[in-house]
Write a structure and sequence with these properties.
The chain contains 16 helices and 13 strands. By secondary structure, it is α/β, with parallel strands linked by helices. The strands form 2 sheets. Strands 3-2-1-4-5-6-7-8 form an 8-stranded mixed β-sheet, sandwiched between helices. The protein has a 5-stranded parallel β-sheet with strand order 10-9-11-12-13. The structure holds ligand SAJ.
């Protein structure tokens, strides 16, 4: 395939513009730069741009400075859902509006942001064609879903395998060749762009339904008196046909808690009702209130009510080791406990600006009850002696990360999620 764009890839004469410099776009920009390919960053957020520039890369909030004459645009902007769980593509649409002003013949546009199947062709492309260029003929469009796992020490943008799908054969080929130049992992070509969009949604919906499975088990095992953590660990000894997921006080983050709604909404438009996916979301969304129920029961066991109790909330971010609070269950738990009249001390070492105390000891002082919401390493290591020292009477382990038996033996009420 004799193609201007392909030649530029092969001779490393390519100029790439990254739109969106968050936890997806910035690592990608760094990786492309490390491959000695010309790369420019664009973001509307001046702080993000300043951070990138400070690290020695070229970025700007002014598209004219960085997106003129690039050969390839890679869109890495957020695609959240709104309060009604409806997909919000405004950032991606705005990125396409910007790109349409700079698009020239033979350009490639790649969307990495997660969208529901069909969105790139139905929503993004018409905006890109405001450039009076025809998608698939004058310029090329592909989807290469991002797979960044924030905080993961092993898997990163350079070694995570990827999939690509274009609106036509040449678009797929160009994106395939591009990512083969950029990443040090396998790139799989798909037969359509829609299949590439669906791949990412399936990956994360798979995770959501499996978490819902163990969350429902946790509720059932609480009644039967089975320790779900031990049972899942035991089931994990089976070397095939089982994949461990763990119950908890809720499913947060902008991937697992969000992506299923994309598929639910898209399917609804075709008249299909994803009852199973909706049920999984319902179960996962019920876990913060289930955790509050545990707090009520734990305090009742020592003759207290939530009202006027002093409760320590440990964790605000949606998962351990990150500072991201999006869709975090902690805020639902906090709101509910406040509504019930508790006085709260809130501590998250990764989110100090939203913590009401600045360290763990402060958080535990004069508390009746401790609620573990985030599985930060620091909380996993809390010795029972510390709970005893601060006269904690009830521990609600929202992530099942503490040593249940040791806590119970010390005379403290312990309630986990399914244990
Ligand atoms: N969670 C559970 N039980 C589990 C796993 C997670 O309750 O067994 C909760 C977490 O506490 C958190 C939420 O679900 O609140 C999401 O956790 P996550 O580990 O899935 O982390 P994310 O949201 O950062 O998911 C990312 C995803 N990566 C991408 O979308 C590119 C996901 O596909 C990965 O599988 C996941 O990281 C991962 O494996 O760590």
């Amino acid at each position: 395939m004799n193609n201007v764009f392909l030649k530029k890839i092969e001779t490393k004469k390519l100029k790439i513009g990254i739109i969106g410099l968050g936890y997806v776009g910035f690592p990608l920009l760094e990786l492309i730069h490390s491959k000695k390919i010309d790369v420019y960053g664009f973001d509307l957020d001046k702080k993000k741009v300043d951070d990138v520039v400070e690290k020695g890369y070229t970025a700007s909030t002014n598209a004219n400075e960085v997106l003129k004459n690039v050969d390839c645009f890679i869109i890495c902007v957020p695609t959240p859902v709104d309060i009604n769980h409806q997909p919000d593509l405004s950032y991606a649409e705005s990125a396409c509006e910007t790109i349409s002003k700079f698009l020239i013949k033979n350009n490639l546009v790649v969307l990495e942001s997660t969208v529901s199947p069909g969105s790139t062709e139905e929503i993004m492309m018409p905006i890109l064609e405001k450039s009076d260029l025809k998608a698939g003929e004058d310029f090329y469009v592909s989807h290469c879903p991002e797979r960044i796992d924030p905080g993961n020490k092993k898997w990163n943008v350079s070694n995570i395998p990827r999939v690509v799908g274009g609106i036509n054969q040449i678009s797929t080929e160009l994106a395939f060749n591009l990512y083969n130049q950029i990443i040090d992992a396998n790139v799989m070509k798909l037969s359509s762009l829609k299949n590439a969009e669906a791949t990412k949604i399936v990956e994360n919906t798979f995770r959501d339904v499996n978490i819902a499975f163990v969350n429902e088990l946790a509720k059932s095992f609480d009644k039967i008196g089975i320790d779900i953590k031990e049972v899942i660990d035991a089931a994990s000894t089976k070397p095939f046909g089982f994949m461990a997921h763990y119950p908890g006080c809720g499913v947060g983050g902008h991937c697992i808690a969000v992506d299923p709604y994309y598929l639910i909404e898209k399917a609804e438009k075709t008249g299909f009702n994803h009852r199973f996916l909706k049920l999984a979301r319902e179960i996962n969304n019920s876990m913060p209130k289930y955790t509050v129920k545990k707090v009520i029961e734990g305090l009742n066991d020592i003759g207290k009510s939530v009202k006027n109790s002093n409760i320590s909330i440990l964790g605000l971010s949606y998962k351990g080791g990150v500072s991201d609070i999006r869709e975090s269950p902690s805020f639902i738990i906090i709101e509910e406990l406040k509504r019930l009249g508790a006085s709260l001390k809130i501590f998250d070492p990764y989110v100090l600006d939203k913590s009401t105390v600045k360290n763990l000891n402060e958080a535990l002082k004069n508390s009746d009850c401790v609620v573990i919401v985030t599985n930060h390493q620091e909380f996993k290591k809390i010795p029972v002696e510390k709970f005893k020292k601060y006269l904690i009477k009830v521990v609600i382990d929202g992530r099942n990360i503490l040593n249940k038996d040791k806590i119970i033996k010390s005379g403290i009420i312990y309630k986990g999620i399914g244990r």
